Amino acid sequence: MSKLMRQKAILDIILNEKIKSQEELIDRLNLLGFTVTQATVSRDIRELSIVKISDPGSGYHYDIPSRIRDKGKSPEELLKEIFSQAVVSVDFAQNIVVIKCYTGMAQALCAKLDNANFELVVGTIAGDDTVFVALKSEQSAIELVNRLNKYF
User: Fold this and answer.
1) Whole-structure pTM value
2) Which residue segments constitute the domains of the chain, with CATH numbers given?
């Protein structure tokens, strides 16, 4: 079966079930006839920009990325939306902007930040709850912090 079919199956599963782990997703894909490894599922999750969201009372589960549900919105509009839901604080040190997020939200925010194509951004990296943004200068970092703080 093709990658496209597998990724469509992943989206269908996540739309219809509360999948809490990659292992659970692998099991569901195996039941549908897809033989996959953890590395393949991890790559698919990243390519599809699937995120883990908090579900009060039952922990976290995967959810479909907003870009599928929000067609027609600009990358900056999408960044503003996730920013208001994911970000705890924004600060900088020299030419590095540090964005603290709620647990599990940093990678989704980082993807939206990358898609916004800010010209002064050299690169980004995300962990589970923190995004580091490298900029060309300290002045660029100050400008980005001021711009992002308006999204709160």
Assistant:
1) 0.56
2) 3-64 (1.10.10.10), 72-149 (3.30.1360.40)
